[in-house]
Design goal:
Mean pLDDT: 88
Oligomer: single chain
Number of helices: 1
Low-confidence stretches: none
Radius of gyration: 12 Å
Distance between the termini: 41 Å
Order of helices and strands: EEEEH
Number of strands: 4
Length: about 60
């Protein structure tokens, strides 16, 4: 049975959502930043919430 991906501590900064989840391979806590704008497709995982927040604040969508 596959492991469930459940995010907690979700917050939003502009079009970017940040959520905390457990990594499947190592069981570590990882913070994901995902842009929710149409056709952007940007996302990244970070080891600290501060890094994810900085990435969310500085993200600029290339799609117009």
């Amino acid at each position: 049975m596959p492991a469930r991906d459940s995010f907690h501590s979700v917050m939003r900064i502009g079009p970017v959502q940040i959520g905390t989840h457990r990594d499947r391979t190592g069981g570590r806590t990882v913070h994901a930043a995902v842009c929710t704008a149409d056709r952007c497709g940007w996302s990244a995982d970070y080891s600290s919430r501060t890094a994810a927040q900085l990435a969310a604040r500085t993200h600029r969508c290339t799609v117009r």
